[in-house]
Write a structure and sequence with these properties.
Oligomer: heterodimer
Shape of chain B: globular
Number of helices of chain B: 9
Low-confidence stretches of chain B: 318-330
Number of domains of chain A: 1
CATH class of the largest domain in chain B: Alpha Beta
Radius of gyration of chain A: 15 Å
Number of strands of chain B: 9
Distance between the termini of chain B: 15 Å
Strand order of the largest sheet of chain B: 3-2-1-4-5
Structural class of chain A: alpha/beta
Order of helices and strands of chain B: HEHEHEHHEHEHHEEEHE
CATH architecture of the largest domain in chain B: 3-Layer(aba) Sandwich
Mean pLDDT of chain B: 88
CATH architecture of chain A: 3-Layer(aba) Sandwich
Helix content of chain A: 10-25%
Largest interface: A-B, 31 and 23 residues
CATH topology of chain A: Rossmann fold
Low-confidence stretches of chain A: none
Strand content of chain B: 15-25%
Distance between the termini of chain A: 18 Å
Chain lengths: 202, 330
């Protein structure tokens, strides 16, 4: 199974790579200006966070939009990755009412996919100035906190997920399980794709 | 670490291929550079020389401790006393960016000299992932430039070899334990050493203050951990602030410096929480610092911030060195 990390300039891009590697996935870090054709063999993509203001500055996010439009595989956007995908599909971003740095108490409202088998509430680590103000149509919130209403989202008709916090850092509780849940989705899509007649979109 | 044995085998094989002549390794005696030294030594044997630079900014007793480790490891080594050179270059400099460039450049000059003497074409370094991540690059913000080789000049006549680039500290420690490297449990210590814990000008006097305060912090925390009062933090040290505040000593008004104590828990240095040190341990450090160092320090504070939003060390480390990253699966 191949899951690539799209590097938007986060301090923790390489941590995402490490977590995937430890979960025995074939992975590599790719610059976000990589042509889609060069990464279309991926079974899943992680869109990393970015340098400050990254998601609000479309030029800093390279081909993330192309990947979101063309990739049929599951995509997980982290921090600026989530912000960008929300904006891309019609949501709105803005400065966080309360910027979050360090520990945040996460309240999970959707246990179907990324948070499957996880508690209703646990501590995660965040580091962001901006946040998603309005989620796009066709998306729903799957987790929130007292200081950020949109800590996690999912798309209703495609396997696209976003988390505002950082599941890849050591201090986030259940971070590895969130990645495992994402990989389970990647794996099930991949086996469906393999058994499906070629040439059809899913 | 996942696949540590395989990593060791592959790395030694890779170093054999890469290091075709003689090499020096920039070795501070910390776990990263010691692991890189041992791996390179296994690959090329006596064609490797470990160079330790005593820049006058090291902790109490550190140079002798490192000498002992070199001897025990059986490495070819050279300990270079360059303190005068470093202090002369740092005189009057307060601006961190300039400090950092000066220290980085001094390091490289010493390494160049030693490489020339030894006939080395390769420079091995124990650079690990957070070093280049935090140093920034085309897409990543510079959080702090790590020293490693600070300001590698373009005309440097050595090829850089960095076998640990994709590892984090916890992984390096696993490898160190597997290889029996004695530095495996040493706490992280920045390359430019006490210069980053001395905010303001780096003078022998200021460094002496922060050196003694670091020693007291390390000593008290180690004792408290040995006595079961607390867990040993990931990193623990003192920082000298560049200000004076008023105090009272024996009924006299006395102005003194402020020491900040920093202690954090972490796995990989990329996130950290401040250590919940028991109050009686903080108390012992405070009393000891302000008594034993009464001529210079009259106030001690404890830093209670996590990373993020703070960083672990207060002052940046010097470097300018980064290579454009092109990370692929090993």
């Amino acid at each position: 199974m191949k899951v690539y990390v799209v590097d938007n300039g986060s301090q923790w891009t390489h941590r995402e790579w490490r977590v995937l590697r430890y979960l025995k996935v074939e992975t590599k870090i790719v610059p976000n200006n990589t042509p889609f054709d060069d990464i279309k063999d991926a079974d899943g993509l992680v869109l990393s966070g970015g340098a400050p203001g990254g998601a609000c500055d479309a030029s800093a996010m390279g081909n993330n939009g192309v990947y979101l439009d063309r990739a049929e595989v599951p995509i997980l956007g982290v921090c600026a990755g989530m912000q960008f995908l929300c904006q891309h599909f019609g949501g709105e971003l803005g400065p966080g009412t309360v910027p979050e740095f360090g520990p945040v108490e996460l309240k999970v409202s959707g246990h179907e996919d990324l948070f499957k088998g996880l508690p209703d509430s646990f501590q995660v680590w965040a580091s962001h100035n901006d946040e998603v103000k309005r989620i796009p149509e066709g998306f729903e919130v799957t987790a929130s906190s007292s200081t950020c209403p949109h800590e996690a989202v999912r798309c209703l008709d495609r396997p696209i997920f976003g988390v505002q916090f950082h599941p890849e850092v050591e201090n986030t509780e259940h971070g590895v399980e969130i990645f495992q849940n994402f990989l389970a989705i990647v794996e099930s899509r991949r086996s469906r794709r393999d058994t499906r007649p070629r040439g059809r979109s899913f | 670490m996942l696949g540590a044995e395989e990593f060791i085998e592959d790395t030694i094989e890779d170093l054999k291929q890469k290091i075709t002549g003689k090499a020096i390794i920039a070795c501070s005696g910390g776990v990263d550079s010691m692991v890189a030294a041992v791996l390179a030594n296994k690959a090329v044997g006596d064609r490797l020389l470990a160079v330790y630079v005593d820049n006058g900014l090291m902790r109490k007793g550190e140079t002798e401790e490192v000498r002992g480790m070199f001897k025990a490891t059986g490495l070819n080594y050279d300990i270079v006393d360059a303190s005068e050179e470093f202090y002369a270059a740092l005189a009057g400099v307060e601006e961190p960016e300039r400090k950092r460039k000066i220290i980085g450049e001094k390091f490289i000059r010493v390494f160049e000299r030693k490489a020339k003497e030894f006939g080395a074409e390769f420079l091995v370094q124990g650079t690990i992932a957070p070093d280049w991540i935090e140093s920034g690059d085309g897409v990543r913000d510079t959080i702090k430039s790590h020293h490693n080789v600070g300001g590698l000049p373009k005309d440097m006549g050595m090829t850089l070899v960095e076998p640990l680039r994709d590892l984090y500290k916890d992984e390096v420690r696993d490898i160190a334990r597997m290889l029996g490297v004695v530095a495996s449990e040493r706490q992280p210590f920045p390359g430019p050493a006490l210069a980053v814990r001395c905010l303001g000008e780096v003078t022998p006097e200021n460094v002496a203050i922060v050196r003694e305060a670091c020693y007291i912090v390390e000593d008290e925390i180690r004792k408290a951990a040995a006595a079961g009062e607390m867990e040993l933090p990931w990193q623990y040290f003192a920082v000298l602030l560049p200000s004076k505040s008023v105090g009272v000593q024996g009924d006299r008004r006395a102005y003194g410096r402020t020491i900040a104590i920093r202690a954090v828990s972490s796995i990989d240095g990329m996130t950290a929480t401040y250590s919940k040190i028991p109050l009686q341990v903080l108390d012992r450090m405070s009393v000891r610092i302000t008594n034993e160092m009464k001529d210079s320090v009259n106030r001690v504070v404890y830093d209670i911030t996590n990373k993020p939003p703070a960083t672990i060390e207060w002052e940046r480390s010097p470097t300018v060195f980064t290579t454009k990253n092109s990370i692929v699966m090993p």
